[in-house]
Amino acid sequence: MNEKLTHHLLWERLRSGDRDAFFDLYRTLYYPLVNFGIRVCADADTSSEATDLVFTTIWEKHETLNRVDNVEAYLRTFLKRKLLRILERKRKINDALSNAGADGDWMEMSYEEFMVKMQSDELVKHQLKNALEKLTFRQKQLIHLKFFEGLSYEQIAEQTSQSIKTAYNTIYDALKILRKEFKG
């Protein structure tokens, strides 16, 4: 039996809650996924962490997993998205630390300065929430796929059963609404 079929059968058993199938899939694909992750991010620890999160998530959500034809390709895509989120979070932390000043100025920030910063962050979150409420479900879905999952217009069109032009136009219209809400 070829690997793709074996992975598919294990995936189907996993979806029905079979622990042994989960561990078999883990044993079979863990190291190939870690190696793939290292090629993506050039960091073994980050790749290993992300791969652990992928397997943890698929076990936690095994009851709601969809059927997948190519399990390894699906898990690679899932891993790549996890890695991008982890790397983005690390970048934000590094940016925040460098913006705070290398000499520890951030520790000398007064309570008032800290509260102003926190309130401005909350204001931006509130504006974003209000702006997102103006979007249709489809616009929110496509914005999420484009900017949070990093999919191309072609991948979005394929995943949502739309033409590439429709996906592009829907995202363009959503961005116009978001720009208008943030300016107004």
Describe what you observe in this structure.
The chain is mostly helical. Helices cover 79% and strands 0% of the residues. It has 8 helices and no strands. The termini are far apart. The mean pLDDT is 83.
Low-confidence stretches: none
Helix content: over 70%
Shape estimate: globular
Number of helices, counting only DSSP H or I runs of 4 residues or more? 8
Total count of strands: 0
Radius of gyration over alpha carbons? Answer: 21 Å
Mean pLDDT: 83
Query: Which structural class should the secondary elements be placed in?
Result: mainly alpha
Mind summarizing the main beta sheet? none
Beta-sheet strand percentage? under 5%
H/E element sequence: HHHHHHHH
Distance between the termini: 61 Å
Short descriptors:
8 helices, mainly alpha, 184 residues, 79% helix
Topology:
Blueprint: H1 3-15, H2 19-41, H3 44-60, H4 71-100, H5 111-133, H6 137-148, H7 153-160, H8 164-183
Helix pairs in contact: 1-2, 2-3, 2-4, 3-4, 5-8, 6-8, 7-8
Please give a quick description of this structure:
The chain is mainly α and 184 residues long.
